[in-house]
Amino acid sequence: MTFEQPLIRPPSEWRSGLIRVTRGCDWNRCRFCGIYPNLGEPSFSVRPLADILADVALLRQLRPETETMFLGDADPLQAGVATISELVRHLRQAFSLTRITCYARASTLNKLGRDGVMQLAAAGLNRIHLGLESGSDEILRYHRKGQSAKMVREVATWLHDAGIELSVYVLLGLGGSSLWRQHALATAELLNAIEPAFIRVRRLWVYPESPYGPGSPLLGEIAAGKFQPQSPEGTVLELQLLLQQLTARGAEFTCDHENNYIKVKGQLPRDRLAMLAQIEAFLARPAREREQHYREVGSRI
Ligand code: SF4
User: Fold this and answer.
1) Overall pTM surpassing 0.85 (yes/no)
2) β-strands 252-254, 265-267 pairing
3) Is 25 in the pocket of ligand 1 (CB under 6 A)?
């Protein structure tokens, strides 16, 4: 017995039941990404609800004890409030769940509006993973993210009012070596304003072509000299500057991806100084050791 599963899930959803609502990414334009074409899913489609519910029935047979659910792929809310609400209500009836989560683009939440977000919360969706990436509009525009800091602030307010936890992703290196300070400062400012429940840090990795599809669109920009990648040490300094500026309360801050050069983790504001001390201790190590460490950290999806 098999069922369709999302191609990608957040590391924190490793125990979750995985439900594929959409295939690929409808936006598919972010310069730093291109992940779904790279994994062999270049186009976008919404799966029929009947097929999704058949997968749910199968999961109920295989893993009836499932406590958390994740809906994929990149932007399942494109299926619409009515469809997602029906699915979420169905999942709540079929399983004893503490959490139902999904990836969502800020621009999709913006289109659904405050009422749409409230309806999703009422149905039982209670956490959203959102690619914040950067708080700098200049950097977001360059990377064709299709969102602004203002838009993120607005949808974060709706989510907060609806009682949906917000888990955001920050991408170190997105400003390259020239805009790294702007990237860290503007991102900290946005995080301080929206105070998400989770801040999850990643490092930009410009991945090559795979057997299934093309490499990241940013490869062409780098080859043309239009984007100068951040250095490994610069990435650590970005993390340090970001944490120095964070005043957000209540967030769990975590570098929960293998690509991170430094994996600090803690509750804000309680553990901020301890995380900074960890970074400072690393930067105080001899240059040769630091270089060795950077070489040893792998890059993977
Ligand atoms: S970052 Fe997200 S929205 Fe942008 S192309 Fe990749 S999957 Fe799509």
Assistant:
1) yes
2) antiparallel
3) yes
